[in-house]
Structure to design on (340 residues):
């Protein structure tokens, strides 16, 4: 396999990966398939504050069953994704790792993110080592604190412990807070088990606490972001501090409800593309990394075919929520306030 040369993209002024004409993918059964250039898309790169490059579109893997996740990751790598987003709590690190290995693509050509689950906040290194073992890799490129909430790691359930009254078994923040978790994640950088650390589901106030009290500026913040939840103030704030922002649920999560929006359909028609590609292009237009998930090979490939939005259309999409309303699709019951 040849390594892709990088060329500077004129319009976005970030780096494009140029894929070779034909690449070979080694599959599970050790047979090889040919991958034609016409089947793959080029994905621009952004830069993290560590100096590392991150592909501007990542592939989401939440809520995929084991077999779905395997086939989806194989399809994604074949289509040209180089950036995979998973998490310990998704329960698919093992199968995602297997798909990555079976793809035959070199580890150093890929950007892999996984996340520290809330019951593991007080044992971050152990949790990261377990994730690496499941993924079958020596390091991840980005390790995120999944939620700014610490749950009892010795409770009645490994992932979602509850108290006798049925409420979430949370650790009192005066005893252990998300800041303590972040400070313990900073030490992971010395182990080289992760190249960068970051946070997820943090509000602006909480990002500010990290910036005030921690030693390492987070490389990334992963939050729910789409035209119905643009969170412009938080995005601007992070970008001004050198924190790369990632958009989860860029299509509105399960069932992609955003794609029924007439205004997005109109803009898609204008660019001769799909509303999904418009949502994904809008993220990249605002220098945010979208993480679209799909288990459908045609959609997986189509979601990479981003278009260059005009500033006028980008701003129109950013303003859609003013007439259509704000919508948040991912809001687990933690029993405490997470979002502003
Ligand atoms: N940090 C966090 O707390 C957090 C929270 C949520 C998500 N995430 C990450 O972000 C990723 C994406 O978010 P998400 O999974 O919530 O939702 P999403 O990517 O916004 O949407 C996924 C849904 O869109 C459908 N879809 C995808 N492409 C489509 C297309 N071109 N046309 C029509 N439908 C399409 C998928 O269907 P099919 O699969 O059936 O094709 C699936 O139902 C996750 O997988 C995960 O990696 C992180």
């Amino acid at each position: 396999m040849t390594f892709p040369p990088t060329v500077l993209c004129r319009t976005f002024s970030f780096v494009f990966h140029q894929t070779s004409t034909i690449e070979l993918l080694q599959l599970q059964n050790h047979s090889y398939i040919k991958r034609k250039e016409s089947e793959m898309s080029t994905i621009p790169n952004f830069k993290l504050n560590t100096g590392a490059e991150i592909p501007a579109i990542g592939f989401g893997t939440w809520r995929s069953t084991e077999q779905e996740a395997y086939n989806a990751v194989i399809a994604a790598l074949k289509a040209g994704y180089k950036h995979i987003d998973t998490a310990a709590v998704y329960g698919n690190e093992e199968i995602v790792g297997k798909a990555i290995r079976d793809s035959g693509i070199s580890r150093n050509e890929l950007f892999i993110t996984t996340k520290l689950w809330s019951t593991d906040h007080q044992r971050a290194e152990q949790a990261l080592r377990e994730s690496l073992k499941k993924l079958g890799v020596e390091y991840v490129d980005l390790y995120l604190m999944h939620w700014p909430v610490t749950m009892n790691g010795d409770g009645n359930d490994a992932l979602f412990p509850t108290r006798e009254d049925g409420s979430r078994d949370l650790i009192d923040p005066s005893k252990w807070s998300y800041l303590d978790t972040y400070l313990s994640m900073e030490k992971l950088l010395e182990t080289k088990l992760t190249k960068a650390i970051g946070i997820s589901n943090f509000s602006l106030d909480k990002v500010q606490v990290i910036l005030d009290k921690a030693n390492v500026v987070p490389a990334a913040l992963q939050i729910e972001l789409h035209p119905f939840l643009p969170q412009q103030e938080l995005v601007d704030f992070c970008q001004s501090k050198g924190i790369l922002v990632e958009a989860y649920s860029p299509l509105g999560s399960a069932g992609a409800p955003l794609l029924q929006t007439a205004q997005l359909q109109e803009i898609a028609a204008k660019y001769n593309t799909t509303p999904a590609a418009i949502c994904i292009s809008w993220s990249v237009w605002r220098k945010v990394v979208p993480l679209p998930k799909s288990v459908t090979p045609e959609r997986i490939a189509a979601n990479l075919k981003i278009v260059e939005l005009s500033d006028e259309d980008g701003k129109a999409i950013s303003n859609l929520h003013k007439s259509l309303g704000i919508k948040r699709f991912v809001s687990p019951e933690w029993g405490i306030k997470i979002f502003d």
Observations:
- Confidence is low (pLDDT under 50) at residues 1-39.
- The chain has twelve helices and 14 strands.
